[in-house]
Amino acid sequence: MTQPLVSWDDYRTVLAVSSARSLAGAAELLAVNQSTVFRRLGAMEERLGARLFERSRTGYALTAAGEEMVKLAERMAEDIVDFERRLTGQDLRPQGELRVTTNDTLVVHLLTPIFASFRKAYPEITLDVVVGNQSLNLSKRDADVAIRATADPPETLVGRRLAAIPWAIYAADSLGLTTLDPVDYRSYPWIGLGDNLASLKPGRWLVQHVGEDRIGWRINTVLGLAEAVAEGAGLGLLPCFIAQTFPNLVPLSAPIPEIPGALWILTHPDLRSTARVRVFMDHVGTEIARRRGRIEGVDRPA
């Protein structure tokens, strides 16, 4: 293939000199030194066999050939920016498919009406909701947005903290308990989180303060844990806003400060300006703000 006479770096150089009207100004725009700009410009004019600029005391002025090259370079720059916007998510129209990952507890107790209102507001965006407790890799585009209950979101993602999620000890009212002294923790059977959730702060707190031997039932979802505690099978640590949806669950403690849960909405940095990601994150943030009192355990659901 024949090598072109002019590279994209050459076009950028001409654009910079045209804009700055000096080699020093162009060098600053291009983040190179002035001698590099001088060499590039001279070599380009020699290859093309035409002068691109007239040099004078007032600066560098475009020749007719230079004006043609600048027009072409500006069109190329616009095309490149447009391509990069599409590639990295800078598109302006909120449409297409949006893949969202979250867990079953949040879908059942919080997010479904929010997803429904989003679809009503943005019918051109198709939601693909992936439910699971495992962390999908947003860098590999397993999902576009993650809505997670976590105190420590990955540093590789960007987003915002939507609400605190306090945890407390709960029991079914059938057990006849209204308070629980820490010295009596080991007097009762407990239900805990299993699998990968056991290593989270609620799971570690339970092992530390109650002991492995008093955990008679483990389950790998907070949704299932709440159901089991509500059946009276044992005491359990639960997010307050989940427990408050069960009329027969009784709080046996205040929120435990050692378990600082939080609700986050996250995306990959390359996707945060994508129209569909942006409007989705804004919509969810607004709707969660309206429900923050309930999520943080301040307002009990009617």
Structural notes for this entry:
- By secondary structure, this protein is of the alpha/beta class.
- The protein folds into 3 domains: 8-88, Arc Repressor Mutant, subunit A (Orthogonal Bundle); 96-164 and 261-295, Periplasmic binding protein-like II (D-Maltodextrin-Binding Protein, domain 2, 3-Layer(aba) Sandwich), CATH 3.40.190.10; 167-251, Periplasmic binding protein-like II (D-Maltodextrin-Binding Protein, domain 2).
- It has 10 helices and 12 strands.
- Helix 1 packs across helix 2 (23-30).
- The radius of gyration is 30 Å and the shape is elongated.
Descriptive labels:
single chain; 302 residues; alpha/beta; Arc Repressor Mutant, subunit A; D-Maltodextrin-Binding Protein, domain 2; 3 domains; five-stranded mixed sheet; 10 helices
Query: What strand order characterises the main sheet?
Result: 4-3-5-12-6
The number of domains = 3
What fraction of the residues are assigned to beta strands by DSSP?
Answer: 15-25%
Unreliable residue stretches = none
CATH architecture assignment name of the largest domain: 3-Layer(aba) Sandwich
CATH homology superfamily name of the largest domain: Periplasmic binding protein-like II
Chart the SSEs and their pairings:
Elements: H1 8-20, H2 23-30, H3 34-48, E1 53-56, E2 59-62, H4 64-88, E3 96-102, H5 104-121, E4 125-131, E5 145-149, E6 158-165, E7 167-172, E8 190-193, H6 201-209, E9 215-219, H7 222-230, E10 235-239, H8 240-243, E11 249-251, E12 261-267, H9 275-290, H10 292-295
Parallel strand pairs: 3-4, 3-5, 8-9, 8-10
Antiparallel strand pairs: 1-2, 5-12, 6-12, 7-10, 7-11
Helix pairs in contact: 1-2, 1-3, 1-4, 2-3
